[in-house]
Amino acid sequence: MAQLSDRILSLRKEKNWSQSDLAKMVGVTYAQIGRYETKNTQPSAEVLKKIADALNTSTDYLMYGNKDEKARAALEDTELLQQFKEVEKMNNEDKKTIKNIIDAFIKRSKLLQIAAL
C-alpha cells in the first residue's frame, strides 16, 4: 500500500519536477520536500494542502490514496457505504437525525448482547 511519501514522490515525478521545483511552489526548502518523500517527516496540514494544490490533487488522496478505496477497506458492506454517501449530501439537521437513529440502534444492540449474557 502506497504511503503519503510515495504519492508525493510519484506525482512530483509525473510532472517532471525536481524537489526544488515543488518546494518553491509550496514555500518550503527542497530538503523539506526530501524529508516528506523519504517517510521521515509528515507535513503540517497547511503544507499538505499547498503540496496537494501544487500537484493538482487532494489532501485526501495524498494521505489515504483513493477515497473510495479507503472507505471500502474500512466498510465491507457496499450498500451501507452507498447509503452513507447519500447521507453526506443531506443538510446538517437530517444528518443529525440519521446519526441519532443509528446511535439508538447501536445502543439497543449492545443492550441485547448484555441481556443475553
Tell me about this structure.
By secondary structure, this protein is mostly helical. It folds into two domains: 66 residues, 434 Repressor (Amino-terminal Domain) (Orthogonal Bundle), CATH 1.10.260; 41 residues, no CATH class. Helices cover 74% and strands 0% of the residues. The protein is built from eight helices and no strands. Helix 2 packs across helix 3. The two termini are 41 Å apart. The model has no long low-confidence stretch (mean pLDDT 88).
Count of strand segments: 0
Which percent range fits the helix content?
Answer: over 70%
Return the average pLDDT rounded to an integer. Answer: 88
Rg value: 20 Å
CATH level 1 name of the largest domain: Mainly Alpha
Number of helices: 8
What name does CATH use for the topology of the largest domain? 434 Repressor (Amino-terminal Domain)
| CATH H-tier superfamily of the largest domain | lambda repressor-like DNA-binding domains
Biggest sheet details:
none
CATH architecture of the largest domain: Orthogonal Bundle
Number of domains: 2
Secondary structure category = mainly alpha
Strand content: under 5%
Give the CA-CA distance, first to last residue: 41 Å
